[in-house]
Design brief:
- This protein has about 300 residues and is mainly α.
- Helices cover about 55% and strands about 5% of the residues.
- The protein has 14 helices and 3 strands.
- Strands 1-3-2 form a 3-stranded antiparallel sheet.
- α8 packs antiparallel against α9, α8 runs antiparallel to α12 and α12 packs antiparallel against α13.
- The longest helix is centred in the middle third of the chain and has 23 residues.
Length: about 300
């Protein structure tokens, strides 16, 4: 096994958490906050009963501190529909009920505004925006939707989007041979192979995510490269049999290896075909994604 493979597998096995599945967002640990300003699971009484549910469902901040926790909690509540469109968000009330400072609330709402989830206007205040205004390609929103009421639609849409992005990226990558990237892709396949043999799904998924991200980066298209985060998010939130990357299998590993071989040979058509085979595992995907055109 290469040094890279050993290092990556060791790091994965020592991790404290695993990738979350549906309903498992609370498995991400909260960062410990000062006693004087800790965002816990308060009981919201009075005029906003929906906000009291946050403690039962909200994800942790993954070490992002109070600001990140509040963004995560409010973002999930908006995406899940607990805070519907045009719902007013009063900063003072949020600060009091989550026991955080005005600065934390203000910065959190700015982040949500940048994601298109809320809008702040003079004499109107901060309100929740409709779904049509959300930045649906934002990695956080992808995650929140994937673990909310619209999880099935979100995973289907992600699968369709990957069908648009990745076969093209594989074809283009075959014409932009970079030995360092190709070696890295080969390393990822080696890591996945060893992880599969040891039943190490976490290491497999991490190597898989890096494989797909690298492939898009080597395609030589900067606009596609900007979409690599979407693919990574899709891999991390996939909770059902939507694509061949969702479960470590010999077939999935074989398709990854064939992509690498096609890239090394400069065969764009073979790389594209191997990627399409990798992304097909569920009949519904084949129905919603058009067949590739003959060239």
């Amino acid at each position: 096994m290469s040094t890279l493979a050993h290092t990556m597998m060791t790091a994965a096995r020592s991790a404290d958490s695993v990738l979350a599945g549906p309903g498992e967002l609370d498995r991400y640990p909260y960062a410990e906050a000062p006693v004087t300003e800790r965002l816990g699971a308060p009981s919201w009484d009075g005029s906003d009963p929906e906000l009291g549910r946050v403690g039962r469902r909200a994800a942790g901040s993954r070490g992002r501190g109070l600001h990140g926790q509040l963004v995560q909690q409010l973002g999930q509540m908006i995406v899940s529909g607990d805070l519907g469109a045009d719902r007013p968000l009063v900063p003072e009330e949020i600060g009091q009920r989550f026991e955080v400072s005005r600065t934390v609330v203000r910065e959190s709402l700015r982040v949500l505004e940048a994601k298109g989830l809320v809008s702040a206007r003079p004499n109107v205040g901060t309100r929740v925006r409709p779904v049509s205004d959300w930045n649906l390609l934002d990695p956080d929103i992808i995650e929140w939707r994937a673990f909310g009421p619209q999880r099935d639609n979100q995973r289907r849409e992600l699968s369709e989007l990957r069908w648009t992005i990745e076969p093209l990226a594989a074809r283009l990558a075959a014409g932009h041979g970079r030995e360092d990237i190709q070696q890295r892709l080969s390393d990822m396949v080696e890591i996945m192979s060893h992880a599969l043999g040891q039943g190490d799904a976490l290491t497999f998924s991490r190597a898989d995510a890096e494989f797909h991200s690298l492939l898009i980066q080597v395609a030589g298209n900067r606009m596609l490269e900007h979409l690599s985060g979407i693919v990574s998010s899709a891999l991390h939130v996939s909770g059902g049999p939507v694509t061949g990357c969702d479960r470590p299998t010999d077939a999935s590993l074989g398709h990854h290896a064939r992509i690498v071989d096609a890239l090394a040979a400069g065969d764009g058509a073979a790389a594209e075909a191997a990627m399409r085979q990798l992304l097909i595992v569920h009949p519904e995907v084949e129905r919603v994604v058009p067949a590739p055109r003959e060239h």
